[in-house]
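Handout, page 2. Input:
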Amino acid sequence: MEPDSEVKTSEYSNHENFAFFQNNCRVGNTTISNVNPVTLSGGITINGTLTSTNMQFVGGTISGTNALAGLLVWSGGIFAAGSATAIATNSTLIVAGGGNNMDLNAVVFTNHGAVTWASGTLRGGNGTTVYNYGSWDCQSDQQFNSAYGGAGVTFNNYGTLRKSGGAGEFSSYTLFTAGVLFNQLAGMIAVQNGTNGLELAFQGSANLLGGYRRKGAIRF
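Output:
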């Protein structure tokens, strides 16, 4: 879409020229059936549901109250403070930030589908709230921290928090740092076994009401 353009309710099918949203684009309920990746960059406001089988969030910001359906690969950019984003049922978010920071400052983030946390440091604060009703798979040794401070981060788990990859127990781990309150309200924490075992660690406060399934280590 062109800069400063607006899409309210639309459907696109195999439109090869429709390859990106960027630069102050405002989007409503939109479905794109496209073999090419749909690139999200610049400053985008989404109020409604954006559906595509191949979305790439590579930079800039996503604002608004929205749901993302299909497949989204998040390799750059931030979810803007004050926004509310949901990953829809039967949809997947891949967090692939490499060595970069992936920011969720003052964001409400709800997962009804599958989050694959492959790489990148997740940073929140100022009341960041996560609701996981689906699966959240930690595939590497990263951390979710409260770098922005303030009211910190709350992670509410009603689904499955899984640790399926990483260097191994006692050498490295996925860490929810101080300032991140982890509420295990239902669902399951599952730590799978690697070559030397895997480890999931909680440095902040934790309320533990759900179940556990582990072959590696869970540290509080």
